């Protein structure tokens, strides 16, 4: 396929995704979770996703290994931007079921490992514990195993296994499809026809339509079985294998070894089981997390402790400031003048507290990007908490984050330009330059890191690599949506009135007295309190990203985010007040990094997670990917949390010096 057809395909996918969301906005079921009712005997087609492994974190195409292909060729299924960015490559497969019709010994095909390179790749995938990911009606295949009297749940199944120096492949699959009978109150009936689904409404007088079933569970048990190649070579796809295939421990025959030039026969069987599980509850099996009780109580305990500490800090802080203001305002003018001469503290930096900081343009740019990232996080998590981005909507979370980030460019431009005008005394010249830099600063860093990581993925021939056509789509979204909206926000910021300072700034800067302790040491240490609100939830988020676990407690995550905003603001206020009390009027950057320093601890935690929780991660490419994506996350968190602290400190300093008369 050439470049322009691929380009048109990505554009059509993006526009189609937007159209589907708008079309279903008023539907009862959320986007991505619409029930499909299949009449008895209708075709059900299994889809395949990329091969994944926690050993390497490098996804590969399903058909990079010698698996059977559909008779009409492999087709790329409908995907959104989020799926592509996550490395998902959903494709058609030859596994075909008929609704509520049990089948056994179904033959698929014979494949042969011809070249030595193919054999080497297959053995590497088996040694790296790569998993095959199948989907039916948007449900991932789930596998149950027992270990030490505990039942474990896994999504997908291993490519194979190794005994001593011999590698074996799982070439026979036992599927179990749990179905729930339609009770006649569904929104639509859906006839499964491979890629396309033709939906038609069901009215009250549609009794002539045969009752259908909804898929509520999809389980798989892999088996390695050495078929009779002479018998299988005479069969066509979907014909019945002539002899029973017994994969039970008592009747299992020899395993299917992987050898160069030796054919491998693939087969499957499927059993439909009617279940009491209702359609809205079909994801419960995937969302059951081990240690859920510990998860909930740990988060609740963390929230209570952080809220209690934050309350104490806030009360002490407000009482201290109020006492200083009260003492100062009770004095007459003569006493105030004498007090200004004798006392030290924040009252003496009145002529310097609003002096523009060094690298003020960079500060405005980082604050603008921080507003954009923070707004994206708040809106995305809020939508996810209300269920609009459920696990059933694969890739919807990342797609939503990208969409909200693009739209919120207008907020970034407005805040950055208005803050820049305030620092420049109301001069609006050069606002276009500031807006352009805001639009290019964070996305530019992201594209730089992604390009480097993409070269590593291309070199590894992984499906996690972003295609060139998708890169062009992202650049088009950047320059056609984000940049114009940022410029529009900058225009409004240039037209808005500047924030007036309550006091005048002296021409000669005041000398900062020697400090007993390094001020930046306090700034770096201030990030420990915001980190305390995150570290428990951070473990579950990183497990979801790197270990393939489903994360769904977005309600708690939103609460944690609110607490993080409050704690970041309070920590920055306290540090700013402490610096003003020792006559250090250079508070601008310190207020930003007082809360933004939480990113340092998150990065250290990421390294700790890599060393102790991802011990099996192997290869320099995998480690480079982990470090690269961790740096992206940490950089975004630094901008967002630093913006919270800076804006809170700016408001506090403005309020503090406007609440008392100082000459």
Automatic annotation (TrEMBL):
- Which domain of life does this protein belong to? Eukaryota
The listed locations are: Endosome membrane; Golgi apparatus membrane
Q: What is its main location?
A: membrane
Per the record, membrane topology reads: Multi-pass membrane protein
**Membrane-spanning segments:** 296-318, 362-389, 395-417, 438-458, 470-494, 520-546, 552-575, 587-607, 627-657
Q: Which organism is it from?
A: Wollemia nobilis
Q: Which family does it belong to?
A: Belongs to the nonaspanin (TM9SF) (TC 9.A.2) family.
Q: What is this protein called?
A: Transmembrane 9 superfamily member
């Amino acid at each position: 396929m050439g470049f322009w057809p691929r380009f048109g395909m990505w554009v059509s996918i993006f526009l189609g995704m937007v159209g589907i969301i708008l079309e279903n906005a008023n539907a009862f079921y959320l986007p991505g979770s619409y029930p499909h009712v299949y009449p008895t005997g209708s075709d059900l087609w299994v889809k395949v996703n990329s091969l994944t492994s926690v050993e390497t974190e490098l996804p590969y195409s399903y058909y990079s290994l010698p698996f059977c292909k559909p008779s009409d060729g492999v087709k790329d299924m409908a995907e959104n931007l989020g799926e592509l960015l996550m490395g998902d490559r959903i494709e058609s497969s030859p596994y075909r079921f008929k609704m509520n019709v049990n089948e056994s010994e179904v033959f698929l095909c014979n494949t042969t490992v011809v070249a030595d390179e193919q054999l080497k790749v297959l053995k590497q995938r088996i040694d790296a514990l790569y998993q095959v990911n199948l989907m039916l009606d948007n449900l991932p295949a789930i596998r149950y195993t027992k270990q030490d009297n505990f039942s474990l749940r896994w999504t997908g199944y291993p490519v194979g296994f190794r005994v001593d120096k011999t590698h074996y492949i799982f070439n026979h699959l036992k599927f179990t499809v749990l179905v729930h009978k339609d009770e006649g109150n569904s929104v639509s009936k859906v006839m499964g026809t491979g890629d396309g689904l033709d939906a038609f409404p069901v009215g009250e007088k549609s009794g002539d339509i045969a009752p259908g079933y909804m898929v509520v569970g999809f389980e798989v048990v892999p088996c390695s079985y050495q078929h009779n190649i002479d018998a299988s070579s005479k069969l066509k796809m979907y014909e019945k294998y002539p002899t029973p295939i017994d994969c039970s421990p008592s009747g299992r025959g020899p395993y299917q070894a992987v050898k160069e030039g030796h054919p491998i026969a693939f087969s499957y069987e499927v059993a439909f089981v009617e279940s009491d599980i209702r359609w809205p509850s079909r994801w419960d099996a995937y969302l059951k997390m081990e240690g859920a009780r510990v998860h909930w109580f740990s988060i609740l305990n963390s929230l209570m402790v952080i809220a209690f500490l934050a309350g104490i800090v806030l009360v002490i802080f407000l009482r201290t400031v109020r006492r200083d203001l009260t003492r100062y305002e009770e004095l007459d003018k003569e006493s105030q003048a004498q007090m200004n001469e004798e006392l030290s503290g924040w009252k003496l930096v009145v002529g310097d507290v609003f002096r523009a900081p060094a690298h003020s343009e960079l500060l405005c740019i980082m604050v603008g990007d921080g507003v954009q990232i923070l707004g994206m996080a708040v809106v995305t998590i809020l939508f996810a908490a209300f269920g609009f981005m459920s696990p059933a909507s694969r890739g919807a979370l990342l797609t939503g984050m990208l969409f909200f980030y693009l739209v919120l460019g207008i907020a970034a431009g407005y805040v950055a330009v208005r803050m820049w005008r305030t620092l420049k005394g109301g001069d609006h010249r050069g606002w276009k330059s500031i807006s352009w830099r805001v639009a290019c600063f964070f996305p530019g860093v992201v594209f730089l890191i992604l390009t480097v990581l993409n070269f590593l993925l291309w070199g590894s021939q992984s499906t996690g690599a972003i295609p060139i056509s998708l890169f062009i789509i992202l650049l088009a979204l950047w320059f056609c949506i984000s940049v114009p909206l940022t410029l529009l926000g900058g225009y409004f910021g240039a037209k808005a009135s500047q924030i007036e300072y309550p006091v005048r700034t002296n021409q000669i800067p005041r000398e900062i007295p020697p400090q007993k302790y390094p001020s930046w040491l306090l700034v770096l240490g201030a990030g420990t309190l915001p980190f305390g609100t995150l570290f428990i939830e951070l473990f579950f988020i990183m497990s979801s990203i790197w270990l393939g676990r489903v994360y769904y407690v977005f309600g708690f995550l939103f609460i944690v985010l609110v607490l993080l905003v409050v704690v970041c603001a309070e920590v920055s206020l306290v540090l700013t007040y402490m610096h003003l009390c020792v006559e250090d009027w250079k508070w601008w950057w310190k207020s930003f990094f007082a809360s933004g320093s939480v990113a340092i601890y998150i990065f250290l935690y990421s390294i700790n997670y890599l060393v102790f929780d991802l011990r099996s991660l192997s290869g320099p490419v995998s480690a480079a990917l982990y470090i690269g994506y961790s740096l992206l996350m940490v950089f975004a968190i630094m901008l967002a949390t630093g913006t919270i602290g800076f804006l809170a400190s700016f408001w506090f300093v403005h309020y503090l010096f406007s609440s008392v008369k100082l000459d």
